[in-house]
Amino acid sequence: MLHIVEPAERAPGPKQVTRAQGKLLQLRSLARNRSAVSAHSRYGLLWGDSPAMAALFDAIERVAPTAATVLIVGESGTGKELVARTLHDKSARRDGPFVAINCGAIPANLIEAELFGHERGSFTGATKAHRGHFERANGGTIFLDEISEMPLDLQVRLLRVLETGTFFRVGGAAEIPTDARIVAATNLDPNQAIAENACART
Length: 202
Known about the structure:
Elements: E1 3-7, E2 24-26, H1 51-63, E3 70-73, H2 80-89, E4 98-102, H3 111-116, H4 133-136, E5 141-145, H5 152-164, E6 166-168, E7 175-177, E8 181-186, H6 190-195
Parallel strand pairs: 3-8, 4-5, 5-8
Antiparallel strand pairs: 1-2, 1-3, 6-7
């Protein structure tokens, strides 16, 4: 089964950049079918007419126009990136970049620099400054696939980005603002991942 985990409620704020905190509602209901979404037609990049797909389309319809950070949960091969892309295409950020990263495919010693960039001379081989994925996703959406494969300490740093909307390049002293919506995905149950220390507790 593939579903979206979204904030159940959140206080309004000027940035609407949400740390994935407080209550999370797992959308398991298969009965919803709003008039704005037809389960019998193509919805973005997705197709399907089952009750499960109707519930998924309904979730995307509700979440896409917001600035909420989203976690997509589903087994490998169920189309999590297609859901993320559809969320992006249905949002106000549709004309901005969509940057997808497979966290499990990047070596642990390189992922921080890949996400946040680095300054010249910050480590051996850093011969010039490098813009990371967050800078390239500015104004759009960054999709962090298999986020549970990301080192736990880097997940904690990611939570700070969610809280403040800023980050530092590796080796940098200047705080850089980001306007990228974060959509993450995992093939693990979130509660189980937290219990096994595969995901940071928010």
